[in-house]
Design goal:
Oligomer: single chain
Order of helices and strands: HHHEEEEEEEEEEEEEEEEEHHH
Shape: elongated
Helix content: 25-40%
Strand order of the largest sheet: 4-7-2-1-9
Number of helices: 6
Strand content: 25-35%
Distance between the termini: 221 Å
Number of strands: 17
Structural class: alpha+beta
Radius of gyration: 70 Å
């Protein structure tokens, strides 16, 4: 029984397989017909096939649609390639010469294989350390150049329309060191343009320069605050002379804290209480350093006023001793001067006496002689007058008839006296004056 059933099943399976093969064959024929006459139906051939094969199992009739891969459209990539110089790169450099007596020269050099028609460069320097003096262009480079200097920068522009193949120094600059403490500084070179005869830029490298000063004055290091000489100054509205604290020959005074005190014409002005360091430069170039404390005289609780008073007293004592020594020296000097002057006066008096004594004797002798002569003259005049009167009397006595009155007699006597020269008339005075 079982065998019969098994055989029936096998036959049924073979029959199904045969029917399936026939259906596939009919399907191929049908598809060919549809392709030959597509106008007979609007439905796609696949749908017709599904309708004809509805008896088939649903799983066998299902069709899976696979996704279609679409390749992306090709993209264009542009790669930038740097320009390569057609010749060897040029060099623009600064060449510093030797420093002598605080001055030195700097050469601006350009070396390039191509012809140069245009070059523009500048040299920057520290104007607080260096001073531009002059420049000298090199005629061998040809072309023409324009230069200018301002605010610590020297600008150089070179033009040659035909181009030049000159390699070397184009211009020489001269500088002066104005800060004696400068040890070294840098000159910075900046190239704006460098073109060939076709105005095509030329690749280049720029080289700066270093200036070293072998004669730089080395400043002494400032001492530590603990090593500074301390000075205590009371706060006041009046200027305080530094000489009162033994600080002499001040050329310059630099105060670290300007809020505490200020310097002006050899004196300091106290602004407020506090502490500051000051550096004093003397006329000989030496420097001294101090730690100055400005204190308020009214403060006594913390002992600052006492300390300030003690410091002031010490300064006063030193100044008093110095003044006493100066007074003693002045006193001795004055005594020496007075002694020298006294000796000089005595010598002058002695010389005067020795010189004038002979003249005094001679003058006295002459005065005595004059007095004696005057007395003799007076007596002679009296005798002459007596003789004249006597003669007149005798004459009158001899001629009594000629009566002469007193006035005539007096006139006659006067005439006689005039003749003798004892009486001077006005006429005689004029004659003597004329003589």
């Amino acid at each position: 029984m079982i065998l019969k059933r098994t055989a029936a099943a096998l036959l049924a399976a073979f029959a199904a397989a045969a029917m399936t093969a026939t259906a596939y064959a009919d399907n191929d024929t049908y598809n060919t017909y549809d392709n030959a006459a597509p106008a007979q139906t609007e439905a796609p051939s696949y749908n017709n096939q599904a309708a004809d094969n509805q008896w088939q199992d649903t799983a066998a009739a299902t069709t899976t649609t696979q996704p279609v891969y679409t390749a992306p459209a090709p993209t264009t990539t542009t790669t930038l390639v740097a320009d390569k110089p057609t010749s060897k790169p040029g060099t623009v450099a600064l060449d510093v010469g030797e420093v002598k007596n605080g001055e030195f020269k700097v050469k601006l050099k350009i070396n390039c294989d191509a012809l140069i028609s245009n070059a523009s460069a500048s040299v920057s320097y520290d104007s607080a350390l260096l001073e531009y003096v002059s420049s000298e262009q090199n005629d061998d480079a040809g072309g023409m150049a324009v230069e200018n200097c301002f605010d610590g920068k020297f600008v150089y522009n070179y033009v040659n329309k035909d181009g030049t193949d000159y390699q070397g120094t184009y211009i020489t600059l001269k500088f002066k060191i104005i800060d004696e403490t400068m040890v070294s500084t840098v000159l910075y070179l900046s190239v704006t343009s460098l073109d060939d005869n076709n105005l095509v830029p030329i690749s280049y490298s720029a080289e700066n320069a270093i200036v070293r000063n072998p004669d730089a004055a080395v400043e002494e290091p400032e001492p530590e605050e603990s090593e500074l000489e301390e000075i205590v100054i009371p706060f006041t509205n009046e200027p305080v002379m530094l000489s009162e604290y033994g600080i002499e020959d001040v050329k310059e005074c630099v105060i670290e804290n300007g809020e505490v005190m200020l310097y002006e014409d050899g004196s300091v002005l106290t602004m407020e209480t506090g502490t500051t360091k000051i550096t004093v430069t003397h006329s000989d170039g030496s420097k001294s350093y101090y730690l100055v404390k400005v204190t308020d005289e009214t403060e006594s609780s913390d002992g600052k006023a006492v300390e300030a008073a003690a410091s002031i007293n010490d300064k006063t004592d030193k100044q008093s001793k110095t003044a006493d020594k100066a007074k003693d020296g002045n006193r001795i000097r004055n005594l020496l001067i007075i002694g020298v002057v006294t000796i000089a006066v005595i010598v002058l008096i002695a010389e005067y006496i020795m010189i004038m004594k002979p003249f005094g004797k001679k003058a006295k002798k002459t005065a005595d002689d004059d007095e004696a002569a005057e007395d003799g003259q007076t007596s002679a005049d009296e005798e002459t007058m007596a003789e004249l009167e006597k003669a007149i009397k005798e004459k009158n006595a001899k001629s009594p008839a000629a009566k002469i009155d007193d006035s005539s007699r007096t006139e006659q006597i006067n005439k006689e006296l005039v003749k003798k020269g004892f009486i001077l008339t006005e006429q005689s005075d004029d004659d003597e004056y004329d003589e």
